Amino acid sequence: MGKKITVVGLGYGDENSLSLGVYRLLRESDDLWFRTEEHPVVSWIAEEGIRYRSFDGIYERHSQFSAVYREIADQLLNRVKEGHHPVYAVPGHPMVAEKTVEILLQEGASQGVTVDIQGGSSFLDPVFACLSVDPVDGFLLLDGTDLKEDQLNPQVHQLITQVYDRMVASEVKLSLMEWYPDDYPVTIVTAAGVAGQEQVIQIPLFELDRKDAFGNLSTVYVPPSNHPEVLHRQFGTLKGIISRLRAPGGCPWDRKQTHESLRPYLLEEAYEFLEAVAQEDREGMMDELGDVLLQVLLHAQIASETGDFTIRDVVRNLADKMVRRHPHVFADDSAEDASEVKEKWEQIKQRERASEEGKNRSMLEGIPDSFPALLRAMKLQKKAARAGFGWRNPEEIHHQLKEELNELFAAASSEEKEEEVGDLFFTAVALSRYYNVDPEQALLGTCRKFFRRFQAMEKEALKLGQPLETFEREQLERWWNHVKRGEPSEK
Asked: 193-208 burial, b for 16+ CB within 10 Å, e for fewer?
C-alpha cells in the first residue's frame, strides 16, 4: 500500500446519519483519528468499541482556527511519513466546510501522499429541510470564522457555518450589518436533523450574538432580500439601474447622452467633490462621489452598448494596474516612504508606455489638452524636470518671476500681454511645484477665501442699510483688513 490518508465523513448527526461504508472503515482502521469528539455520533462509536484518537487538544493550544487546521494536517502527513495509514474522520461530509481536508488535498500530492475522500452525509440536507429552502434558487455556503463582507450576496440564500460561539456570532453580525438593517430576520439552526437536539430560532440581526444558542453544529441562515435598503448597497444593483435608464423605455435624457455630451459633467462633478473636501463636508463628499461614479457608469454603459468595453473591463484594468504598480505590496519589491512609492510609480508608468507605443514618443505626451491650465502646466514641468530641464532652486524661480512681471508691464499689444500673463502663471506654477503645493487647489483655496471675505464685507454694508458699491474704497479696504485679521469690524 502506498502513502495514503483516508478521509471519511461522520454525517450530520447521530448514528442514523452514518453510512454503512464509513462505519466499516471506522471498525477496520488501526489508526483512526477524529478531528473532534464534539459530535453526536462519537459517543455511539465509543459504545461500539471502536478505538480512536482525536485532535481536540490542538484547539486548546492555538487562538486561531487557521493554526489548528494547519497543525492537524501536518500531524496527519507526518504519520504517513512514519509508515502509518491514518483514517481521518470529520463531521458531516469531508468536502463541505473542512479546511483540514483542503490543506491535505493541496499538499498531499506534492508529498506523494494519496488523499482518498470517502462518503459522509452533509449537514446541508437537513438544514435545507428544516428551513423549507430549495437550494436550486441559489445559495452561498460561508465560513463564519473567516467571513468577509464582500463575500455576501443578499439576492440568494446564505448559510454561514462554523458559528461555534457568541464570539464568532458577533463577528458574523458585524459583517452582516454592512449590508442588512439591524432588524433583518436571521435564523440560528443547531443540530439539524438530530432527533431531540434540533433547534431553529429566528431573531432580528442585532440580537445574533446575544443568544446563548451556539455550538459545533450551529449554522446561521440569512434569507434573500429584495428590499431597496439592502440591494441598493450593491454595485451590481447600481449598474442595473444605469442600464435600465439607458434602455428602451428608460429616461429620455440618459438615452440621448454620448461620451462627448457628458464630457463637461465629469469635470463639474469632480470639482464639486473637491469643494466638499475643502469645506470638510462629509455628507457632501459622499454625495458628490456618487455623482462622479454616475459619470463613470454612464460612460461604461455607453461603451458596452457599442461593444467597446464594459464596466467589468474598467474594473479589471484598474485592478491589474494597482497590482502592477505596487510591487512593494504585491511582489518582492520594497519602498521606504511615500516619495519612493511615487517615484517607482512613475518609473513603471514610463516603462509601460514605452513598451506599448515604442520609444519615439515625446516625454511630454500623455497629458490631455482638456486638463485645467494650471494642472497641465504642473504636469508638463514635472515631466521636463525628469530630463533635468527646470529651475534648480526657488531663488532662480523668484528671479524669473520678476523678469516675467517686468515683461508683462513692458508689453504693448493685447496679444503680448496675454502671452506674458501666461508666462507669469507658468513660472508661478514652478514655484508651487518646488514647494510641493498643488497650484490648482491653492488657487481654488484663494478663491474660496476671497469669496468668504467679500461676503463679510457685504454683511457690514447691509448693517448700514446700503449696497456695498456705495461705499468709498477706503472704507472697503478697512473692512477687508479687519476681516483678514479676524478683528471685529468697525462701522
From this structure: bbeeebeeeebebbeb
- What is the per-residue DSSP string for 402-449? HHHHHHHHH--SHHHHHHHHHHHHHHHHHHHHHTT--HHHHHHHHHHH
Q: State the residue range of the domain holding 301.
A: 235-324
Number of structural domains the chain divides into: 4
What's the pLDDT tens digit per position in 20-74? 999 999 999 999 999 999 888 999 999 999 999 999 999 999 988 889 999 999 9
In-domain check, residue 384: no
Biggest distance spanned by C-alpha atoms of the chain: 109
DSSP SS3 for 354? helix
Q: What is the pLDDT of residues 119-164, one digit of tens each?
A: 888 899 999 999 999 999 999 999 999 899 889 999 999 999 989 8
Q: Using an 8 Å Cβ cutoff, are 489 and 483 in contact?
A: yes
CA distance 209 to 205: 9
Residue 169 sits in the same domain as residue 268: no
Tell me if 387 is assigned to some domain: no
Q: What is the pTM of this model?
A: 0.68
Question: Looking at residue 253, which CATH number applies to its domain?
Answer: 1.10.287.1080
- Say if CB 3 and CB 116 are below 8 A apart: no
Same structural domain for residues 83 and 158?
no
Count of Cβ atoms closer than 10 Å to residue 115 Cβ: 22
Cell 472704507 belongs to residue: 475
For residues 347-359, average pLDDT: 65
How far, in Å, CA of 23 to CA of 89, rounded?
11
Looking at the fold, whether 15 and 109 belong to one and the same domain comes out as: yes
Which of 284, 302, 324 delimits the end of a domain? 324
Residue pair 45/34 in contact by the 8 Å Cβ criterion: no
